[in-house]
Design goal:
single chain, 186 residues, alpha+beta, Topoisomerase I, Chain A, domain 4, Gyrase A, domain 2, four-stranded antiparallel beta sheet, two-stranded antiparallel sheet, 4 helices, 6 strands
């Protein structure tokens, strides 16, 4: 394995960690309700647990309401049951045509709690990035030990790995800052 391959692998792994963080952020409730809140809801569709968005249209109709319109009306009770058991913090309102979820506006405490969650998710991403750095450094040490690279090349490679790590950590910090600002803004 060459140093270039080690850097490439590290860059890809860092990107994946950052993408995972962005995905994690979508599960946090912010001031504006997001349809991703119901992504984990599975509906019993003729005996098969099926993602809600595959049996109904799911729309955020305003800042605090999600409307779920099933493609088959007979699924309304199933969807209602699935939402209740998913325990997402609101009760479904079935009007015979669609199900509406009314989320109360977030309190300051809830916003702070969400910001704390975002920070914890950021820390998790940083740990992943540091583990990626450790992996890359171990590969470099192995190359040096096997005399495939010189001590100087090894030192430069470790510096490059640290530079890539610092860039990724900065991206994570920026994303967390952005998310916290978004969550705390009323």
């Amino acid at each position: 394995m060459s140093l270039e391959e080690i850097y490439e692998h590290q860059k890809e792994a860092n990107e994946k960690a950052i993408e995972a963080l962005k995905r994690d952020f979508t599960t946090i409730r912010s001031g504006k309700v997001s349809t991703s809140i119901v992504d984990s809801v599975r509906v019993d569709y003729y005996g098969t647990p099926t993602p809600l968005n595959q049996v109904a249209s799911v729309l955020a109709t305003d800042a605090t309401t999600i409307t779920i319109a099933p493609w088959e009306k007979n699924l309304l009770p199933e969807i209602e049951r699935a939402i209740q058991s998913a325990n997402i913090g609101v009760n479904p309102n079935n009007d015979g045509e669609a199900i509406k979820l009314f989320f109360p506006p977030m309190t300051v405490e809830q916003r702070q709690e969400s910001a704390k969650k975002a920070k914890a998710m950021g820390e998790k991403a940083k740990v992943a990035i540091r583990n990626i750095r450790k992996d890359a450094n171990n590969k470099i040490k192995k190359l040096e030990k096997e005399k495939e690279i010189t001590e100087d090349e090894s030192k430069r490679a470790h510096d490059e790995v640290q530079k890539l790590t610092d860039e990724a950590i900065k991206k994570v910090d920026d994303l967390v800052k952005e998310k916290e600002a978004e969550l705390l803004k009323v």
